[in-house]
Structure to design on (347 residues):
């Protein structure tokens, strides 16, 4: 075997950025959307569990595991909306892919950037099944770390080319617009959420506040709109007025997790929702008509991270953009772990 199994491939933040820039952000988002859709098609093959969350006053730390029987993945991710005040990210993450047959990890990676990419790719993949035909205009409310990735995924996968930005911090909208300047969007910065949604075919909400916020009220959502609700992803952390939910056809990732974390935590536990994988596989329809309001109640599910890590393992291998970590103690004689320690002392 030419590859030493005790050396685990590691993709640092720097390596991740090189991999993405070499391929181009939009092609990467398209590839990730395809990888995620491929895994949604074989949804039933995966071990699924709602993520394990540890809540504090400031935020949440979560572990997200899944396996398809051949590979196993987990992600560590936090959500701390007040972090940005101290110059820290709201969301950071890292994760690992392992071989189920041996239990040995094969890839350890930064996942802060990868999470922004996979979240955006999942949103765009969902919108391909749910958004109105010919959608061109997207309102984006909340213009923080996720926002440019969301915009570019919707451009790459759906052809969205007009953006209406709003953030309570106008500097965030200006930065988002400046970062996207080279990508060919027509961009308007709006003073209010009400003005941002005017004429929008798709409304993306990606705000961060540990509260039951009302980013959208019922009167702001017209017939035929698709809502991509990204920021409500924790108990007590939602973005939409409950009346909007009652007028919408609601699509979710994994109901046992979304009923606790998503916008639908505001609804009774048996409220009807459609699992996105059933739409992707053709078992259920996506958008039924031009007047329907569709809502993707995104919270982020482990299978999307699995897909992203699976994609990354190949991309890192092809580009050579990884380091090798001496992460696993692996003595030549497997049962002589202590002897390895003694030999190290002697050396
Ligand atoms: P961020 O802190 O970088 O940006 C959030 C932005 O929202 C900030 O610019 C802030 O000023 C703005 N904002 C807050 N309240 C607002 C309001 N009432 N109206 C308008 N703008 C408002 O956070 P981020 O990394 O971009 O993440 C955004 C949200 O998405 C977070 O809540 C995060 O937990 C969530 N998220 C969800 C997923 C998923 O899979 N669903 C994945 C990643 C992040």
């Amino acid at each position: 075997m030419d590859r030493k199994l005790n050396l685990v491939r590691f993709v640092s933040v720097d390596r991740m950025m090189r991999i993405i820039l070499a391929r181009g952000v939009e092609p990467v988002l398209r590839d990730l959307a395809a990888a995620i859709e491929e895994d949604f098609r074989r949804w039933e093959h995966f071990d699924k569990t709602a993520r394990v969350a540890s809540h504090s006053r400031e935020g949440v730390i979560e572990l997200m595991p899944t396996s398809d029987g051949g590979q196993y993945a987990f992600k560590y991710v936090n959500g701390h909306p007040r972090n940005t005040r101290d110059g820290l990210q709201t969301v950071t993450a890292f994760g690992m892919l392992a071989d189920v047959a041996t239990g040995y990890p094969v890839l350890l990676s930064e996942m802060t950037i990868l999470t922004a990419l996979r979240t955006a790719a999942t949103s765009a993949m969902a919108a391909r099944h749910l958004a109105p035909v010919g959608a061109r205009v997207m309102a984006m409310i909340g213009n923080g770390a996720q926002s440019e990735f969301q915009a570019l995924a919707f451009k790459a996968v759906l052809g969205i080319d007009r953006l209406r930005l709003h953030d309570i911090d106008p500097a965030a909208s200006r930065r988002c617009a400046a970062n996207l300047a080279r990508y060919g969007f027509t961009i308007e910065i709006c003073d209010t959420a009400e003005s941002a949604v005017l004429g929008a075919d798709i409304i993306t909400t990606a705000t961060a506040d540990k509260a039951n916020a009302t980013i959208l009220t019922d009167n702001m959502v017209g017939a035929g709109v698709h809502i991509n609700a990204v920021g409500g992803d924790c108990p007590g952390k939602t973005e939409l007025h409950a009346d909007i939910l009652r007028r919408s056809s609601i699509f979710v990732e994994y109901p046992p997790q979304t009923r606790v974390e998503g916008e639908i935590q505001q609804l009774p536990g048996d409220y009807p929702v459609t699992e996105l994988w059933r739409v992707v596989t053709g078992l259920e329809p996506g958008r039924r008509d031009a007047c329907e309001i569709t809502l993707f109640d995104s919270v982020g599910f482990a299978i999307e991270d699995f897909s992203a890590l699976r994609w990354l393992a190949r991309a890192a291998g092809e580009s050579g953009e990884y380091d090798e970590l001496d992460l696993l103690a692996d003595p030549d004689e497997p049962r002589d772990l202590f002897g390895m320690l003694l030999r190290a002392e002697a050396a």
Remarks:
- The chain has two domains: 3-113+303-346, 120-300.
